[in-house]
């Protein structure tokens, strides 16, 4: 059964001067080794190792504050608008002048999730997700922004997106086959239905979902629900409940700031997302 927890219930471990880490998704907590997630806090002036294991891949984004990624290629400033993809074996350090809170996910031994795995072809990439195209739900006011896809990362080991639910919106009941996935609530609150049973979720919650577990969100709160979700592997099958509308996403022609997006993505259903060449 899916695992629910809030980051506030997990103790932080000191990692040196001004650095503390919360281990969120762990094999022990979810009984799976597909992915691990951490929340890393850097105090003002702190610095920490941010390297990736030889067979792993990782991604990260800033939840609060600002940081700088330091690699052999130089320094990359990071804020809440950035999404960072880190390939296997990447050597890196993370530092912050004024303090930062950073979310990081790692897929150990990532080659097992991508039959076309080519570690040498993967690169360290930093993108401004606020320039990515916004897709609108065909049925209501929900919005989707892809964060990591085969086109953006170069691997099918993971796929993920940010989804925004204005008050009163909801998804259709569905389940996935061939992948486990998790959702992290960034802001807002909602009711999450798991196998038809309601569960209240709020900012700071992680929901870890296994194969064949029916689920959907209803934003029955008064503010926008924003969450990120990631699938491992990034290729899977989505199955909708009988008579449920299939989630279809149409291009808005804009980014989240209302400007021209960095690329174009054509209309598609959630079931097609893993197989599209424009993602």
Q: Would you mind describing this structure in some detail?
A:
- The chain is mainly β.
- The protein folds into 2 domains: 3-128, Jelly Rolls; 131-275, Sandwich (Jelly Rolls), CATH 2.60.120.10.
- Helix content is 3%, strand content 46%.
- The strands form 5 sheets. It has a 9-stranded antiparallel sheet.
- The two termini are 30 Å apart.
CATH class of the largest domain: Mainly Beta
Q: Domains counted in the coordinates: how many?
A: 2
The ordered H/E elements are EEEHEEEEEEEEEEEHEEEEEEEEEEE
Helix content: under 10%
**Stretches with pLDDT under 50, minimum 5 residues:** none
CATH superfamily of the largest domain: Jelly Rolls
In CATH, the architecture of the largest domain is Sandwich
Sheet with the most strands: spatial strand order = 1-20-17-22-15-14-13-24-25
Main pleated-sheet profile: 9 strands, antiparallel
Instruction: Tell me, briefly, the overall form.
Output: globular
Computed over alpha carbons, the radius of gyration is 18 Å
**Average pLDDT number:** 96
> Can you count the beta strands?
25
| CATH domain fold name of the largest domain | Jelly Rolls
Number of helices: 2
Write the layout of secondary structure elements.
Elements lengths: L2 E4 L6 E2 L4 E5 L3 H4 L5 E7 L4 E3 L7 E9 L1 E5 L2 E5 L3 E5 L6 E3 L4 E8 L17 E4 L6 E3 L5 E6 L1 H4 L5 E7 L8 E4 L2 E8 L1 E6 L2 E6 L2 E5 L5 E4 L6 E8 L4 E4 L7 E4 L16 E2 L10
Antiparallel strand pairs: 1-20, 2-3, 3-4, 4-11, 5-10, 6-9, 6-11, 7-8, 7-10, 9-12, 13-14, 13-24, 14-15, 15-22, 16-23, 17-20, 17-22, 18-19, 18-21, 24-25
Give a brief rundown of this model:
This protein has helices spanning 27-30, 150-153; strands spanning 3-6, 13-14, 19-23, 36-42, 47-49, 57-65, 67-71, 74-78, 82-86, 93-95, 100-107, 125-128, 135-137, 143-148, 159-165, 174-177, 180-187, 189-194, 197-202, 205-209, 215-218, 225-232, 237-240, 248-251, 268-269. It is mainly beta and 279 residues long.
């Amino acid at each position: 059964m899916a695992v629910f927890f809030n980051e506030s219930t997990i103790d932080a471990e000191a990692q040196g001067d001004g650095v503390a880490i919360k281990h969120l998704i762990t094999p022990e907590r979810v009984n799976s080794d597909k992915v691990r997630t951490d929340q890393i806090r850097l105090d003002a002036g702190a610095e920490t190792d941010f390297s990736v294991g030889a067979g792993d891949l990782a991604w990260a984004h800033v939840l609060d504050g600002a940081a700088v990624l330091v690699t052999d290629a130089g320094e990359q400033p990071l804020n809440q608008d950035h999404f960072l993809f880190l390939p296997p074996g990447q050597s890196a350090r993370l530092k912050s002048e004024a303090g930062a809170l950073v979310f990081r996910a790692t897929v150990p031994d990532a080659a097992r999730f991508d039959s076309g795995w080519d570690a040498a072809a993967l690169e360290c990439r930093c993108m401004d997700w606020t320039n990515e195209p916004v897709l609108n739900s065909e049925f209501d006011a929900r919005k989707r922004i892809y964060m990591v896809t085969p086109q953006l990362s170069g691997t099918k080991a993971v796929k993920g997106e940010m989804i925004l639910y204005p008050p009163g919106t909801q998804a259709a009941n569905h389940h996935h086959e061939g992948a486990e996935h998790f959702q992290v609530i960034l802001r807002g609150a909602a009711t999450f239905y798991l196998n038809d049973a309601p569960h209240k979720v709020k900012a700071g919650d992680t929901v870890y979902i296994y194969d064949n577990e029916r689920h959907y969100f209803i934003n029955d709160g008064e503010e926008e629900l924003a969450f990120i979700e990631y699938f491992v592997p990034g290729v899977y099958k989505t199955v909708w409940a009988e008579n449920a509308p299939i989630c279809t996403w149409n291009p808005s022609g804009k980014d989240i700031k209302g400007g021209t997006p960095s690329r174009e993505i054509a209309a598609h259903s959630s079931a097609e997302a893993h197989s599209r060449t424009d993602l």
